Amino acid sequence: MMKQSSSKQGHKRLPVKLTILAALLAIGGCTQFKDVPPGTPFSELESTFGKPTVLCDLEDGSKRAVWSQQPSGQTAWAVDISKTGETGQLEQVLTNDSFERLRRGIWTAEDLRCTFGPPAEDTMVGPSGSRKVVWSYRYLQSDVWHSLMSIYLGPEGKQVTNFHPGPDPWFSEDADFSKL
């Protein structure tokens, strides 16, 4: 008789176990940016991930889309879209290698926005008379350290003059989130 009672309890637990299994499979089955193959139609990306944070028209008639987690997250995924709507390879653009691109050529605020998305912070620094616009992006420097990439755009915020990484104060031991 005990055996039969135990079997009935097992049947009662079966729906719970199936629900947990279904939830785990659903979580594991979620599409991630890194899993999207090149050539995926842009419309499919929008239906999966929503509208991009930034969508820019490029000089050759193609477009660039950026899905950003700024100001709180540390990633932004970007993709170039052909005139026919097919996508290239999605890339995580808030990385050391991506920021190294800033060493080549002239970069405007619009170039930054279309490459990295909107910044986490847009501030002015420096003494009166020599203040500069600074855009800062939260990211994992070397995939390890919680950092801000600070990009200086000169006094009028038109062209990149300098950039450097530094620790993200949000992750310091004395961070005060009550000021947000």
Sum this structure up briefly:
Helices cover 27% and strands 26% of the residues.
Strand arrangement, largest sheet?
A: 1-2-3-4
Beginning-to-end CA distance, first to last residue: 62 Å
- Number of distinct helices: 4
Total strands: the figure is: 8
- Seen as an oligomer or otherwise, the chain set is single chain
Rg to the nearest angstrom?
23 Å
Biggest sheet statistics: 4 strands, antiparallel
Strand content: 25-35%
Residues in helix, %: 25-40%
Mean pLDDT: 85
Q: Determine the structural class based on helices, strands and strand pairing.
A: alpha+beta
Tally of structural domains: 1
What is the ordering of alpha helices and beta strands? HHEEEEHHEEEE
Low-confidence stretches: 1-8, 20-28
Shape: globular
Descriptive overview:
It is a single chain. The chain is built from four helices and eight strands. It is an alpha+beta fold and 180 residues long. The protein has one domain. It starts with a helix and ends in a 13-residue tail after the last strand.
